[in-house]
Amino acid sequence: MSIRLGDIAPDFVAESSEGKINFHQWLGNSWGILFSHPADFTPVCTTELGTVAKLKPEFEKRNVKVIALSVDPVESHLNWIKDINETQNTTVNFPIIADPIFEVSKLYDFVHPNASDKFTVRSVVVIGPDKKVKLIITYPASTGRNFNELLRVIDSLQLTANYSVATPANWKHGEDVVVIPSIKTEDIPAKFPKGFKEIKSYLRTTPQPNI
Ligand code: BEZ
After folding, report:
1. What is the pLDDT of residue 119?
2. Residue 40 CA, ligand 1 centroid: distance in Å
3. Which residues of the chain have pLDDT under 50?
4. 99 CB contacts (<8 Å, ≥6 apart)?
5. CB-defined site of ligand 1, < 6 Å
6. Least buried of 67, 118, 122, 156, by fewest C-beta within 10 Å?
7. Residue among 35, 44, 116 whose CB has most ligand 1 atoms within 8 A, to mutate
8. Architecture of domain 163-206
9. How far apart are the two ends of the chain, measured CA to CA in Å?
10. Ligand 1 center to residue 51 CA distance, Å?
11. What is the pLDDT of residue 2?
């Protein structure tokens, strides 16, 4: 099954390194990041999980729960976590789903058979508090993800969910944003009291409204 932006993120029950997970119930009213891995005891994945453990306070600040998935059983995950903690100088502080028969991976389209029919690819799915899919990014097994970029995207998703703005290329929290095209220029001052610049009729910028 393939999933697309705006779909309800498929619900599931699965075993994890922290016990049974009822996914939607586990998410509660939080945002969520579900990210898949090719396999346990692989080098890039080890660095990725260590990085996410260290960034957990940043995800928490944004009300985002993180959960990993790898297609090995729980016992393997528990042994691997010891290695991650040791080699990455951290403590894995989020669950890793065990998906040995690819149940969740199939629901989320994490197997790309023309890349590999044995391993899941490195996908990230961001889910909003409404349980809808807000972002999907897929990397090959050979490329570790940039989790600072994911934090940046979460900042954009959370901002644009609440204001009639979009974020331009390479935008970072604190920088000017663009007013979405459906807002008429004459209506901008009332909506964006910090001011705006009209560079073209379709390109209007304003200071980030929520800071
Ligand atoms: C890794 O996680 O290190 C990895 C997994 C599969 C292929 C290449 C690298």
Report:
1. 87
2. 9
3. none
4. 14, 69, 70, 71, 105, 120
5. 38, 42-45, 141-142
6. 118
7. 44
8. 2-Layer Sandwich (3.30)
9. 40
10. 16
11. 87
Assigned fold of 13-145: Glutaredoxin (3.40.30)
Q: Where are the domains of the chain?
A: 13-145, 163-206
Atom of ligand 1 nearest to the CA of 119: 6
Q: Can you read off the two tokens belonging to residue 142?
A: 């050979």
Q: How far apart are CA 149 and CA 31, in angstroms?
A: 16
3-state helix, strand, coil split of the chain in percent (to 5) is 30, 25, 45
Q: What's the CA-to-centroid distance between 122 and ligand 1, angstroms?
A: 9
- pLDDT value for 116: 86
- Provide the pLDDT for residue 118: 83
**Amino acid 117: pLDDT:** 81
Which tens digits make up the pLDDT trace of 59-82?
A: 999 999 999 999 999 999 999 999
Give the active site residues: 45
Cβ proximity of 12 and 20 under 8 Å: no
CA of 56 to the centre of ligand 1 (A): 23
Same CATH fold assignment for domains 13-145 and 163-206: no
